[in-house]
Design brief:
- By secondary structure, the chain is mostly helical.
- Helices cover 70% and strands 0% of the residues.
- Helix 4 runs antiparallel to helix 5.
- It starts with 30 loop residues before the first helix and ends in a 17-residue tail after the last helix.
Length: 426
Amino acid sequence: MKYFSSDDEGKDGYEEIKPLMSTENSSRVSSSTAHSSLFDDGEDGSYSPLSAFLIFFFPALGGLLFGYDIGATSAVLTQLTDSGTSGVSWTSTVSDSSLLQGFITSIGMFGALLGSLTCFKIADDLGRRRTLIIASIFFIIGSSIEYISGHSSFSASTGISLLLLGRIVYGYACGFAMHGAPAYIGEMAPPQIRGVLISLKEVFIVLGMLLGYSIGYAFSYRVGGWRVTYFWAVAPAIIMLYGMWNLPYSARWLALQGRVSEAKDAMRFVIPELPIAEVEALRELALQSSMRRAENRPESLAEDWRRFRAPNIFPALVAGIGLVIFQQISGQPSVLYYADSLFEDVGMDLSASILIAAWKLIATSIATVTVDKYGRKTLLMWGCSLMFVALVILTIAFMFPYTSAETCNDYTSSDSCPSSDGCSWA
């Protein structure tokens, strides 16, 4: 059953926009006004809570699946390096190579990079909805390949190759999802709650981490349990696929395609009583797109770069890109990916990772509900300061000599236990 239907289904969906071409008597809004009406907070018609939930929940599952991979991979690494739980013949190949362990983790991010670059070129042609549908399909395929890679009959070369293939396909899906989800939510959400819904997508990412750590822990003592941990991602991916298949295209994308009638229907899915200003904004976007096509003036990288260099855009662009880059190279994501390995190395129970993710979920939720009160810059400064302190403490902690739990467990008698090496027989 579809959540959305259009009276124009089966038609081309295009609405006559020629009367808007006259500038003498036209009442059409300017380009900036059109953008403001569709995408800035302001007065608007009442919205359907159910529809608002649907246009947020299904795209946000892409964020949840991205976070799930972080938690799941952290748990999978500890199982793959344990001959008692891996269930594969190539355990020693993984456990003896830190490079391979890092490759298993990082190749997912490489896939996300490829997915993002692909979306950068084709997303405007596909639309946000199709982008998320493709992402959900790749999530299903990637998780399934990861599950299959652990079959006990596979040799090391076959099993590891399939695992890496599954990781890169799953990462490719993450690239599509992280590109399409915030755009779809932002373009379809009612202005009154648009900021909250986009922020809640971040909560879904952390919720995914918590689920990944939790499910990984639940199957950590089961032989081959890491395969099931990865395969669990198929369930939310199928839900995401079903939901996005039945949701409308984003109104802004339809308007840019000149499909004004369909764009109005898409907006009415969320805002049944569509204000006149919104209708005019949709027509304006369609007009701009139509004029560009008539002039045979497609969007180009040079034109995009010229717009990005505008004084009111460039500083924000640099700040946004810089924040993302420094967040990644700070090492904070590495702590999350290797949380289970770090805790296991110092002899702690793997459930500690679940507590870390739960605390991160609480902190993210608090930031989401207080961001309008304290401001984004204030919360950003607090977050960066606390992350700096935490990373310094971690660095100092690992500077001291210690014996890992794995090494300590190799000592089977009091005579073989070197107490001077930080390990004592008990």
